Amino acid sequence: MSKKSKTDQNKKPDLWDVRKQALEEILGPSMGIVFHSAIPLVLGGLADVLPFRHFVKGYSYVTADLTGGESGQLPNSLGNYELMMCVKKNLPLAAKLVSQLGKHSMTNCLDAGETMSIGSYFADKTIRALIFCHVSETPAVFKLSRKRCGLLLCIGITESELAFKTRHGSAALLAKLKDTHVFPYTKPNRDSIV
Fold first, then answer.
1. What pLDDT does residue 12 have?
2. Per-residue confidence (pLDDT) for residue 145, from 0 to 100
3. Which residues contact 57 (CB under 8 A, 6 or more apart)?
4. What is the C-alpha separation between 24 and 52, in angstroms, rounded?
5. Which of 2, 87, 93, 172 is most deeply packed, by most CB within 10 A?
6. What does the pLDDT look like over 128-164, one tens digit per residue?
7. In whole angstroms, what separates CA 157 from the centre of its chain?
8. 3-state secondary structure of 114
9. CA neighbours within 13 Å on the CB side: how many for 105?
10. For residue 8, what pLDDT is reported?
11. Is 184 exposed, middle or buried (0-12, 13-18, 19+ CB in 10 A)?
């Protein structure tokens, strides 16, 4: 076993490693790969994304650039937050979407209960918007650099589900998504639940 020098002992852990560890405490171990943006977020590019396989059956794609430092993200009710999308099968478009949304969150605050149109992003027949929500009944929060941070889940919804949310509120739509076992997944080409 090698001895650590005094400078090694005083070295602060890398923010990336601390953030990854905080996310893994909530989501289980990551897959050990990173979807890197060609241009880093701090230089105007997109957010890096970590895939997870142990949080839900399938894949969870989570941004890993928005918390703990000075990312420039506009904070929401969680503070700074990472974006997350769960899918049943490997879907790189989901990773790309949360990466793009990470950049979008630098100039637009996204929060639980809100929705956003995505047009035909998935090139499918039904998913046309996202609803943002917490990953469970209570918000998933963690601390980085003494700042409160959290996870914001993005779920793909249909046009009629978006209209239902407008009429009845996001809590009513989320209850239906949970009752029909759509929550927490984004499922391109699925039938509408309303």
1. 58
2. 82
3. 88
4. 9
5. 87
6. 999 999 999 999 999 998 889 999 999 999 999 999 9
7. 16
8. coil
9. 30
10. 47
11. buried
**CB-based burial of residue 34 (10 Å sphere; 0-12 exposed, 13-18 middle, 19+ buried)?**
middle
- Residue whose entry in the numeric block shows the structure tokens 């999308």: 85
The tokens describing 26, both together, are 């909530």
Query: Which residues, listed in sequence order, are joined to residue 63 by a DSSP beta bridge?
Result: 49
Joined tokens for residue 86: 């769960």
**C-beta of residue 47 within 8 angstroms of C-beta of residue 63:** yes
Element holding 62 (H helix, E strand): strand 59-63
Report residue 193 as tokens.
């639940």
Q: What is the pLDDT of residue 149?
A: 95
Amino acid at residue number 125: K
- Residues of the chain short of pLDDT 70, as ranges, are 1-12
pLDDT (0 to 100) of residue 40: 87
C-alpha dist (Å) from residue 139 to 77, 135, 155: 10, 7, 15
Classify residue 133 as exposed, middle or buried by CB count within 10 Å of its CB (0-12, 13-18, 19+): buried
